[in-house]
Amino acid sequence: MAGNSFGQLFKLTTFGESHGKALGGIIDGCPAGIVLDLDKIQEELNRRKPGQSAIVTQRKEPDTVEIYSGIFEGKTTGTPIGFAIHNTNQKSKDYSHIKDSYRPSHADYVYDQKYGFRDYRGGGRSSARETASRVVAGAIAKQFLSEIKINAFVSQVGGMKLDKPYKELDFSKIESNAVRCPDTEMAQKMEDYIKSIKKEGDTIGGVITCVIQNVPIGLGEPVFDKLHARLGEAMLSINAVKGFEYGSGFAGVTMKGSEHNDAFNTDGTTKTNRSGGVQGGISNGMDIYFNVAFKPVATVLQSYETINKEGEKVTTQGKGRHDPCVVPRAVPIVEAMAALVLADYSLLARTNKI
Amino acid sequence: MAGNSFGQLFKLTTFGESHGKALGGIIDGCPAGIVLDLDKIQEELNRRKPGQSAIVTQRKEPDTVEIYSGIFEGKTTGTPIGFAIHNTNQKSKDYSHIKDSYRPSHADYVYDQKYGFRDYRGGGRSSARETASRVVAGAIAKQFLSEIKINAFVSQVGGMKLDKPYKELDFSKIESNAVRCPDTEMAQKMEDYIKSIKKEGDTIGGVITCVIQNVPIGLGEPVFDKLHARLGEAMLSINAVKGFEYGSGFAGVTMKGSEHNDAFNTDGTTKTNRSGGVQGGISNGMDIYFNVAFKPVATVLQSYETINKEGEKVTTQGKGRHDPCVVPRAVPIVEAMAALVLADYSLLARTNKI
Amino acid sequence: MAGNSFGQLFKLTTFGESHGKALGGIIDGCPAGIVLDLDKIQEELNRRKPGQSAIVTQRKEPDTVEIYSGIFEGKTTGTPIGFAIHNTNQKSKDYSHIKDSYRPSHADYVYDQKYGFRDYRGGGRSSARETASRVVAGAIAKQFLSEIKINAFVSQVGGMKLDKPYKELDFSKIESNAVRCPDTEMAQKMEDYIKSIKKEGDTIGGVITCVIQNVPIGLGEPVFDKLHARLGEAMLSINAVKGFEYGSGFAGVTMKGSEHNDAFNTDGTTKTNRSGGVQGGISNGMDIYFNVAFKPVATVLQSYETINKEGEKVTTQGKGRHDPCVVPRAVPIVEAMAALVLADYSLLARTNKI
Amino acid sequence: MAGNSFGQLFKLTTFGESHGKALGGIIDGCPAGIVLDLDKIQEELNRRKPGQSAIVTQRKEPDTVEIYSGIFEGKTTGTPIGFAIHNTNQKSKDYSHIKDSYRPSHADYVYDQKYGFRDYRGGGRSSARETASRVVAGAIAKQFLSEIKINAFVSQVGGMKLDKPYKELDFSKIESNAVRCPDTEMAQKMEDYIKSIKKEGDTIGGVITCVIQNVPIGLGEPVFDKLHARLGEAMLSINAVKGFEYGSGFAGVTMKGSEHNDAFNTDGTTKTNRSGGVQGGISNGMDIYFNVAFKPVATVLQSYETINKEGEKVTTQGKGRHDPCVVPRAVPIVEAMAALVLADYSLLARTNKI
């Protein structure tokens, strides 16, 4: 209810502030019998962690996950998987300048209004550091969903947009560059652009595209819990996300029905896939694909005017170690959230029929 | 879990197929003491109902709601509000042609795959007729939220896009035309366009914009249940929706942080509102606004090729009474879903502090 | 959340006041493909309905259920089953004497305190009439659980207690008498006793025992959602219930571990069954059995002193048509709630393993 | 869903096996602004921990709780409270004898059947060690509910039963003896009896009575989530519990309505309190009291026959450090679960009215 759980049957609950002792979570409902490769969990965390390249924040957080329960002799036991990532490199002093003032387009002001006060260090609970827990859970969900392939990648940074259809891309190239764009030429341009933005002390937005392949038919519930509705909620719950579209998305608006409809092949697949792999809220076996829009990071390393708790104007200077563009590090988070949705609906689909 | 409930504290559960005896729902958690104007509920239903203008389906469904419980002496009692809308004009024979074949870009095929069989009459549970129950519940939620103003309107039909910022629009004009676009000149063009599409036996997509004003600060939960994530899920759960964006949305991607950030006024309001009234998942008191993209209706009144249950090719002819463009009738549905989200989060916000 | 839903995967939500237009509910999550015998649903309702014998209330409520959705061509479709029972014989005037005063040991006072006012007619939502909806849902759950046998019966009325172990009883006799006690001799004594209590204008409590046979191993979750914990909650949610015990129950308290432990046979069954078919919250394949204690009905047809809304003493006279002893009509309710729990956990158990 | 969460608004989720690295939990929904005394949390844990007296298990577990999040500058922040208790003294070798065989009246067999295998060390997830996490959460709930007084105590051990009404007891004596019985004379007898049972290598059951005072009127929901139904579920979810009764309980069965009804005083209180502080599922402001029955601990330090995984008979010898009687250490667990229920319903009650 208070919003720190995601999923119903395969359920993640997370805890932790940016600069607290630890963050972590509990995965409840993970089926018994999954042979878990713990290294793969850490690998996913490493894709998200700071300091991995020149275009991301230079904070040094090892982000080592410790698993406390739910695994025995290498397999999940069906009991909850508790885990924690201990904070080791938190420089809380970096944030003393925001203790009493509100950073624009951050959650500082609303937290104070909602709760009466806030843990201001590093943004507290509103920090995207919380997503590390999602990546852990997503990495486990991926191993449960071993047949399903989930690939997210950066398809836009600022005005630079990858226009190729995803079918023409080589997903094996995603991890070959710092931006996580599978088109290496475009990746280079994006990287250069992010560096120039960083030099200005500014930030820039971007889009992540996610493609999910090999999804069984029948995942998703018909009315409120449509598969794409839950995917949308999952993506919109990631820090800095402003929009979600799947299949034909906003562009589908300008099409006529006769153009937009996906004609069937005799095996139940469709000739086109404007539906984006979901029909009436239920997976139809075609690829699921969607776009997620991220705004530019709010923390700019520039001087700006804002207000303090007393409502007085103050001038302050952005500092700390921040990402000039959030999308490269958000790629594993998008994949993790997609995996959590699919794991949850995979279990739920077991209950549809007698 | 099976997806027919929405909300946690103010919770709607719906039932009903397009051509069954009745559809309806239960609202659980509606606070006691709301003086309910029942006529306003029926008025909202009338905004959604078929046959209201020349550009919508000409089916005749009176859509009269009967309330069974939860109201006593004109006020809500705090107990569940059960209601039903009896079906009266269902022409099931219209659908016998789809009993054994699968309409493209409809849910026919996935229902059969998921459940083993389906109630094919009128699309059964996958029909947008289900949304009538949402409109009833939304109309009650609106009366609970009497301070908050929710206005949705059509901002795009096919390529025709209303480019004025919402602040320049007169919301009192929304109901003045069949399209529900507050710019009467644009409304006329849209209406003409929809008529021409209808004449072709075709359909067209559109966008609904929703503006929510007078929202108290502090609604929304910080992590998975961010206010905009729930709004997004709510909208994506409406039939035919393909995308959702709030505040700067997809356009925000191309902005720099220094341009995108909303500077504070000394009273805590902001000079700009690219955040769209939500910061870190929590309402900040500014207007909430978002766009919802609808694909073209899948039923075209043309001849088309598809497959039957046996996987054989069949040629069929779209018939029945359908909407050439879904957005005019979807406006009250968008408002209803927004109201349900806000009612739910308003109650939840009562529990944040000691 | 507001307490009108039961179950997670197989979920019942109910609505309706004693004297409103109708009561009913929605069953969400019922799997597709169950061939439903609708007559059996009505039969269960008839076991609960007033006027069925001389020892129950003489109100005349036909309690005919109308099913609105979720069933097509005789089978469940996997979509929600909406249903209603219309009220036809409500004599609201019978209750005008309680409009302004509070009946002792009824919910009148707490409803006014909690909600600010109440629908006082027939007890409104606090009336056991709500349980008719549970019986409908339970009857459907029973058909889903066709392998499992659920038999409840009256084992005590006042001080008259059936001391035979349930294995010595013939469950086919339960419906052979008005009390629903499978020992016909004891049944006659209980019936005579209830009649004498009724003559006094008084009421008496009782115990229902429920035996569930043929339960698969593995239903129930290990920690908070232990199978017996949910059964206990289910039973305690029935009007007038004051206690629940399963297996050895309160009597097990005085036993030593060496006496109480159930030794295994080589096939995994146990020689004794003090555990009551549940071990560590999970069914072990042995019979589940439990007792449910019901207090005497609070409405006595005698003169009594109480207070009115202003806190003044008033003398009033119990009237209306009430049960002298609630247990005979509560037998199908106990069975229904047991069936709902088992249906829910049966679905959940499908998700335990890869 | 998988049963490791309790509560809806004030929600505890736990993780951890008896012999894993750590156990712990997350409290989600705890309101912001509670000034927390961390020592009191540890004190509650100490009441539960092994080795505290001669009549409990002599295992040495410091059970020191580490809080990771959700508290800042001494106050709850409204964000989730994550915590862990690291295991330090686990002697897994003690359990190698049960790796391949099933202890009678333990969960070994059903875990293997349900999940395919189990973490057998110390009972794994089925160990009552899990309840340490409940005590942490309950200790925080108690501080939130600072006005409400919750006192549990041992009222029966084997056949030794404290027959005094709770009003004649001095709750300040509960902690004065190892049994946690407020009647010191009876406490001595119980203690002696437990010692004699222990000497036999046997175990014995008991009853805990819990009294909750100063409860505001209006907590509890009318139908499925009656306050006493949730209390019952909470208690039945504690290891070894076989029964629950509140107010007049099973004894109320033999009373007539005219005797059982609680007559009102003019201030809305009642002259008697057979209702046990709950009417129609809603607190009425009177004391809530209930009894919880615990079976004898299944582990007896005697030789016994059982079966192994292959279904072969084996003779084994109970060993390890176990409690001869569980109730003294279960007192803080009962209080904790009661506190969790009340905290949850206190928050929920904020949403009943406009």
UniProtKB/TrEMBL annotation, chains A, B, C, D:
SUPFAM superfamilies: Chorismate synthase, AroC
Catalytic reactions on record: 5-O-(1-carboxyvinyl)-3-phosphoshikimate = chorismate + phosphate
Comment on bound cofactor: Reduced FMN (FMNH(2)).
Taxonomy, superkingdom: Bacteria
Residues binding NADP(+): R48
First-tier enzyme category under EC: lyase
Family matches, as InterPro entries: Chorismate_synth, Chorismate_synth_AroC_sf, Chorismate_synthase_CS
GO molecular function: chorismate synthase activity
Residues bound to FMN: R125, S126, S127, N239, A240, G280, K295, P296, V297, A298, T299, R321
Pathway field: Metabolic intermediate biosynthesis; chorismate biosynthesis; chorismate from D-erythrose 4-phosphate and phosphoenolpyruvate: step 7/7
Pfam short name (any one): Chorismate_synt
Subunit comment: Homotetramer.
UniProt record similarity statement: Belongs to the chorismate synthase family.
NCBIfam families attached to this UniProt entry: aroC, PRK05382.1
Identification of the protein by name: Chorismate synthase
Gene source species: Flagellimonas abyssi
Source species taxonomy: Bacteria, Pseudomonadati, Bacteroidota, Flavobacteriia, Flavobacteriales
